[in-house]
Predict the structure.
Amino acid sequence: MINVNDNFLKLPGSYLFTEIAHRVAAYKEANPQAPVIKMGIGDVTLPLPAASIMAMQKAISEMAHKESFRGYGPEQGYDFLREAIAAEYKQTGVDLAADEIFISDGSKSDCGNIGDIFSTNCKVALTDPVYPVYVDTNVMAGRAGELLPNGQWSNLVYMPVSAKNGFVPELPKEKVDLIYLCFPNNPTGTTLTKDQLKVFVDYAHKNGALILFDSAYEAFITEKDVPHSIFEIPEARDCAIEFRSFSKTAGFTGTRCGYTVIPHTVKAKGSDGQVVELNKLWLRRQCTKFNGTPYIVQRGAAAIYTPEGKQQVRQLIDYYMGNAKIIRESLLKAGFEVYGGVNGPYVWMATPNAQSSWDFFDYLLKEKNIVTTPGVGFGPSGEGFIRLSSLGSRENTIEAMGRF
Amino acid sequence: MINVNDNFLKLPGSYLFTEIAHRVAAYKEANPQAPVIKMGIGDVTLPLPAASIMAMQKAISEMAHKESFRGYGPEQGYDFLREAIAAEYKQTGVDLAADEIFISDGSKSDCGNIGDIFSTNCKVALTDPVYPVYVDTNVMAGRAGELLPNGQWSNLVYMPVSAKNGFVPELPKEKVDLIYLCFPNNPTGTTLTKDQLKVFVDYAHKNGALILFDSAYEAFITEKDVPHSIFEIPEARDCAIEFRSFSKTAGFTGTRCGYTVIPHTVKAKGSDGQVVELNKLWLRRQCTKFNGTPYIVQRGAAAIYTPEGKQQVRQLIDYYMGNAKIIRESLLKAGFEVYGGVNGPYVWMATPNAQSSWDFFDYLLKEKNIVTTPGVGFGPSGEGFIRLSSLGSRENTIEAMGRF
């Protein structure tokens, strides 16, 4: 028998959302009439923007004819999409070359696969609670050490966020190499101001660390002074890469498209001291282990940058943020402790009477037929919280809040 | 500065096909009028099967309406596609459960990412010449050792194939863990009989090795006694996994869909001796680092299993194999030493006067305006050979053969 990657054997059970899906499926099978409302996984419910639909229908027609058929595309993504993204960034004052943008099949893939290009000895810092992919993929890579009784990993450096620190993480107290930051935050829905983010950029710049900035939810920002991109802070060009996604912005959860930005100015080194561009390493990784995002999907994604596309995306976002407002206000009115839901689609609420996350999850599923995500699934600092998604329908959102 | 994965720094230059694409682009830019015919990268040229086009148009319409919109799909792929694939296997006498099939965005991703679940200490054996992804991804994982002057890697075990051994690899002479086999073969186009393949299955079975069987080209097989699946050999269920792709079979090179088959009976172990199902590890990997193949694409792929779809795929394959026949016969008539092109879309020819692969590649590009793939790009045993693809148009194929 061959030997497996032992790190996989350290992972407890399933990926969080797979586990939740199983519990919900089991409940629904036992209670097929139960009017279950899903506010758990951050899945969208509104159809794709009409501009994307039309662009994809056109692209499929092209694939039906020899003259316009497309085979292999560039692994980095088509020019038309990368240039549209670069133009969009430029409008917010961030200058990027198209070859600093890498189109993918979504941020989950990118956040996981990016680890391929870093040394397995890199020390990783992340907020707590946090998107499980950052943790689990570093466990798989051997960077996390061993699982401790409290659910944390011995080799990861945690930056807890909670009401106590206003959900602003403190800088790591030990030397770290990779710092995962996600703002607007999954799961708490909270944000940092430009100054607060700059503290991290300055730290990374000074200490030779790399920020992996996940701005998958930037389109949901409503407040000023909340950066949409880490690169709004100029020094970040040397010490940060950014992940973005069409999933929540344009409803592409089932259509799969995202991109990673790696400026040429982000350098790293081999253990022999040679200096390399991370951009070059990611390109090599993608050219070797990936064969591009479907042409059809790239056309669908590019369509959101047209005037019609932008307007349609705006409507999607406004609809979901309308749900978020209802969720926040209903829960606050009912006396719950609530965060997020202002600059992102997630609402983070404290359980009543300090119940455990999974207990309250089970209660809500069985007694109220509402699916949520137990906060502890995102890390120990999430214990005593649950996450609610505002990406469902308005009707379900109102109905669910009525049940609380 | 953070440390990178040093293994990336060992890789010489670019991924093979990226390098070729650059040379060709440079030539075309300098010679925009040159009638360049592409027979290099194995990219298809005929449009998608009409059944796939229709299925995808329907799927896109579904994505335009709230009631039929689909968000996140199961990471393992939709039932409708996995069951269609299982039914297809059953018709060839291979019994698989749908959960032994994992839908992906293509074999290149799977062949590369599969390494995540194996120990980095696994010893790897592969044929020579070989699809560069198997080599490069093991270099990245740290299994390949150091690059030797002859282009081979110090830690990989090579099983050379050539006219001398009738393109039938010999068993490894040392203990190995992972054995990559691709039949019909890329790049040589040659095949093994069931008995010849069984030699490897028996070896793997007896020595606790795992065969990674790539049958991306199985749809092109014309001869009997050439297995379409490793699982036609029953003992392979314990010691093999299989990669398949819609790329060449149905023209999905730019649409991206493939699948990996991992029977529940394939076991492996942790270094503490615990036994695990590889199926479970791959599921965990995909649930954590992948978010599924687009719904639209899965509908397009499933359509090839309908009666119309099967007929249309047959027409595609027959067309390309018609090209292969022309290539083989033209080259044989011109006195060249030729292999392949009977059970697969690649033709493997010896260069005239034992020219080096790259020299003949350059000659063909500049003097004949034909793009090929230099055999040495697939490994040292490919030196003195070039690979020609029969996936182009009939007109270009005839024209190109006229130039030889």
